Amino acid sequence: MSRGKQIVAVLAGVIVALAAGLVVSTWQPDRPVEELAARWAPPPSVFVDVAGMRVHLRDEGPRDDPQPIILLHGTSSSLHTWDGWTAALRQQRRVIRFDLPGFGLTGPDPDGNYSVEHYVRFMTAMLDHLGIEHCVLAGNSFGGWIAWDTALAAPGRIDRLILVDSAGYPLRSVSAPLAFRLAQVPVLNQLTKVTLPRSLIESSLRNVYGDPTRVTPELVDRYFDLATRAGNREALVQRFRQAQPGTDANRITALKVPTLILWGGRDRLIPPEHARWFHRDIAGSRLVMFDELGHVPHEEDPARTVAAVQAFLALP
Q1: Cis peptide bond N-terminal to 66, omega within 30
Q2: How confident is the model over 3-27, as pLDDT tens digits?
Q3: b/e for 135-161, b at 16 or more Cβ within 10 A?
Q4: What is the value of pTM for the model shown?
């Protein structure tokens, strides 16, 4: 063997050894929902049977509220992202939130379908299960896309719409979380199903916060734990394959429901220009920009953002 080939062989061996070491050091198998529920589903959490899944749900506030508020989280998030808003609203309004299929403790869809159309059908099934004929529907990021598509599909049931850094238009990210980028890269996305460095979750959270210093170890714990729920990592890969923002953006102008648009001015995943597009295309909509917040302003600063919601809903 020539010296050049020997060097290549040695380098190849080193790379394989390093890769093997990385896999071993970051090995993280799936975890059963029962193991995670003890920490992440204490009361008032319940699990309800909807669309062939055991859906993790929290339903709080007065049951006689004729117009409950339903909160939809974004990709790789969970119902916990709305803790701050729920605490502020549940004394006066019924507040309902749940882990969407493929995320949190609900876990993967039994059909492996993560198209927006399928999520809209899931939303209809959930409204029927809860006996809700009228509601305020709010959503962040991917949850915002599901929210406005549901409002188009069931206009008589969605009385008001709240979009928080919502997806919908063709995506032109300034910077996307590393975990999202890896989930869309062939081969590497297969590796992420069995490995998960905690540092990957932390860097991804810091990427979507306007002020990265607000990312706490407890927050990283939550996102890390729920990402390891059995089936969620495969679901994330499929979600990115099956639902690309912008495929039905031409339908946004058909929205006629009163709409509040909230946005973080430092959102690098779905930049603030998208907020202005929603405001332009939804007649009569209101836009509130939080200049120093990021992609999840409701989680980063719940007190300030929920105040805009209370004003929109005319709550004291």
Answers
A1: no
A2: 544 443 433 333 333 333 434 456 6
A3: bbbbbbbbbbbbbbbbbbebeebbbbb
A4: 0.88
